[in-house]
């Protein structure tokens, strides 16, 4: 379409052609944030993919129904994919987070997702080393384990820094003699007469 204006003196002006597009915003989010566990001084990611819309919706976040102040160089960052990234988690970051998608057609909010913040409990004590395994009278291996006491990450990986398994070399003992006699051989022979 275009606009045309004219005056009483007979002059006319015509605008450039314009296209009219219908603005809309779908109701269903492509990806809503999920309940997340994190640990003090670690990071967390709350994912959100807004519903389809024209124009593409802008995403903002609420924490406990209050706007989250996004700081590009700070602890709270909005990723290019609209995820809320929280660095150096604090106890005060715990709460219910809501993703809000809006454009000129309207606004929709996701279901709230709880962020639970735990103290960093780290690792358990190491278990005792296993028995030395290998070929007798040679160098073998022993191992021991410890458990991460923090809750697992969203990908179900331990959320502790460091190794869960420790291995070391050891000397595999030689097999013990089955009798208490000194080693060696002893033969008794009888002469047979023909």
Q: What does the model show?
A:
This protein has strands spanning 4-6, 12-14, 24-25, 36-39, 44-46, 53-54, 58-63, 66-67, 76-78, 84-86, 95-103, 106-109, 113-118, 139-145, 165-171. The protein is an all-beta fold. The protein has two domains: 24-118, Immunoglobulin-like, CATH 2.60.40; 121-175, Thrombospondin type-1 (TSP1) repeat (TSP-1 type 1 repeat, Single Sheet), CATH 2.20.100. The strands form five sheets. Strands 4, 7, 8, 11, 12 and 13 form a six-stranded mixed sheet that branches. Strand 9 (76-78) and strand 10 (84-86) form a beta hairpin. The chain is elongated. The mean pLDDT is 84. Pfam families: I-set (PF07679). Residues 41-116 form the Ig-like domain. One of its GO terms (cellular component) is plasma membrane. This is Ig-like domain-containing protein.
CATH class of the largest domain: Mainly Beta
Share of helix among residues?
under 10%
Q: Which strand-content bin applies to the residues?
A: 25-35%
What's the count of strands? 15
Major beta sheet summary: 6 strands, mixed
Supply the number of structural domains: 2
Overall average pLDDT: 84
| Name given to the CATH homologous superfamily of the largest domain | Immunoglobulins
Oligomer: single chain
* Total helical elements: 0
* Poorly predicted tracts of residues: none
CATH topology type of the largest domain = Immunoglobulin-like
CATH architecture of the largest domain: Sandwich
Given the C-alpha coordinates, what overall shape results? elongated
SSE sequence, one letter per element:
EEEEEEEEEEEEEEE
């Amino acid at each position: 379409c275009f606009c045309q204006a004219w005056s009483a003196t007979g002059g006319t002006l015509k605008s450039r052609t314009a296209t009219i597009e219908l603005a809309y915003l779908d109701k269903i989010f492509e990806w809503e944030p999920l309940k997340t566990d994190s640990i003090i001084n670690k990071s967390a990611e709350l994912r959100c993919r807004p519903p389809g819309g024209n124009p593409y919706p802008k995403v903002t976040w609420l924490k406990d129904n209050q706007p989250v102040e996004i700081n590009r160089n700070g602890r709270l960052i909005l990723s290019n994919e609209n995820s809320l990234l929280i660095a150096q988690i604090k106890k005060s970051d715990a709460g219910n987070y809501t993703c809000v998608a809006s454009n000129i057609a309207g606004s929709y909010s996701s279901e709230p997702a709880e962020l639970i913040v735990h103290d960093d409990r780290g690792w358990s004590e190491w278990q005792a080393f296993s028995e030395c395994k290998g070929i007798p009278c040679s160098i073998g291996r022993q191992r021991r384990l410890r458990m991460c006491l923090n809750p697992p990450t969203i990908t179900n990986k331990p959320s502790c820094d460091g190794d869960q398994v420790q291995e070391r070399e050891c000397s595999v003992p030689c097999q013990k003699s089955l009798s208490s006699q000194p080693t060696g051989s002893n033969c008794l022979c009888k002469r047979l007469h023909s």
